[in-house]
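Recap from last week: sequence in, structure out.
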Amino acid sequence: MPKAKNVEEYIATQLTGIAANPDCGSSHYNLAVGLMGQKKYNEAEKELHAAIDCSPSLAEAYVQLGGICLQRGDLDGCLGYNIQATKARAGFFEGYGNIGFVHLQRGEAEEAITALKKAISFNSRFIQAHSTLASAYLMSGLIDESIEANLKVIKLDPNFAVAYNNLAIAYLEKGEYDKAVEDCDKAIKLGYEVAPEILKEIENHR
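Predicted structure tokens:
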């Protein structure tokens, strides 16, 4: 069955559910997810707000609203919705992870580190948070901490290419060129596009 047909059927099912029970937050949320799959972001946004009206503790709805903001390049909106997500549900690690990501995008490494540590404290296996934390440490010049965070990522997923790329950069910073070359090669092997200036520096140390 074609994928688009599946989404249409999924949306139709949610609409039927909402017609029968208009106050069901999860039906509005599920409908929004279906609409986002069709890139109908404005319609999805309305449904997510309806979901929150029905179920104020539906933290996932805030995260999706943040995702729509990110799609539009609205980092402030994305940050605001993810903060609301963490208020809607205590210990909501995904919200803290996204807060950290936005701060990093804005060059606010210290704030990013605080949020990402919180995300990891609620879910120690949250690989994306470990990876973003490693980048935040790198941005802050905390090279050893960045290496440690990247090694945790690789422990969780040995094929996480970004971690090898970040390790290569960190080892270059430390002057540990053999390790940098090795990790750069691993990143490339896993399909990661290493920045040309990093590749150039790596080639100088082969």
